[in-house]
């Protein structure tokens, strides 16, 4: 059955998988990342996550609320954790110097595989949409991915803002 699912998967899905895998693997290495990329990637991944909820459950208020509540909870939780000590912001270059991390790769693969498995499951068993456990767990899982992605970006934006404020204070002194 798994082979049949894979054989009936549109080719573009594999292209998306390879792209996400490549983007995630690049983040395993330390390096620099622009302020724009720090902003765009979480927005794109949150969009994919929300699209997953909508494609599975339509505009169901319960599903959207579950997604949003879980995303908000994870944002608050992740914001409690400090950035790695080696994370720096170069105000002049508008770039962050970050340590490599597997978290972005895991989040991207989590969103991708959740969307893939949910899509295949619903194609074979459309009645799952009506099952409470499925209708609660899936949006919450998507919300968790979105919340973690968003919070990681917010932590970096906070660093950029505080770096800018410290530079302004130094000029004033």
Describe this structure in words.
The chain is mainly alpha-helical. 73% of the residues lie in helices and 6% in strands. It has six helices and three strands. The protein has helices spanning 2-7, 11-26, 35-57, 61-78, 103-124, 132-172; strands spanning 31-34, 88-90, 95-98. The protein has a three-stranded antiparallel sheet. Helix 2 (11-26) packs antiparallel against helix 5 (103-124), helix 3 runs parallel beside helix 5 (103-124) and helix 4 packs across helix 6. The longest helix is centred in the C-terminal third of the chain and has 41 residues, at 132-172. The protein is globular, with a radius of gyration of 19 Å. It starts with a helix and ends with a helix. The mean pLDDT is 91.
N-C termini distance = 69 Å
| Helix and strand composition category | mainly alpha
Q: Would you report the number of β strands?
A: 3
Task: Report the sheet with the most strands, covering strand number, pairing sense and barrel closure.
Answer: 3 strands, antiparallel
Number of helices: 6
Strand line-up in the sheet with most strands? 1-3-2
- Sum up the overall morphology in one term: globular
Binned strand content: 5-15%
Mean pLDDT: 91
Strand/helix succession: HHEHHEEHH
- Share of helical residues: over 70%
The Cα radius of gyration reads 19 Å
């Amino acid at each position: 059955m798994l082979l049949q699912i894979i054989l009936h998967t549109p080719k573009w899905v594999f292209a998306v998988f390879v792209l996400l895998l490549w983007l995630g693997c690049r983040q395993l290495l330390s390096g620099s990342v622009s302020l724009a990329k720090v902003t765009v990637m979480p927005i794109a991944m949150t969009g994919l996550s929300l699209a997953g909820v909508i494609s599975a459950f339509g505009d169901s208020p319960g599903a959207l609320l579950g997604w949003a509540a879980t995303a908000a909870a994870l944002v608050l939780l992740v914001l409690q954790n400090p950035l790695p000590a080696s994370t720096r912001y170069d105000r002049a270059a508008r770039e962050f110097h970050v340590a490599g991390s597997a978290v972005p790769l895991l989040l991207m693969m989590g969103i991708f595989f959740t969307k893939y498995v949910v899509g295949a499951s619903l194609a074979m068993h459309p009645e799952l949409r009506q099952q409470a456990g499925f209708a609660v767990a899936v949006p919450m899982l998507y919300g968790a991915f979105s919340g973690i992605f968003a919070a990681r970006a917010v932590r970096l934006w906070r660093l950029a803002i505080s770096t800018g404020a410290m530079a302004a204070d130094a000029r004033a002194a």
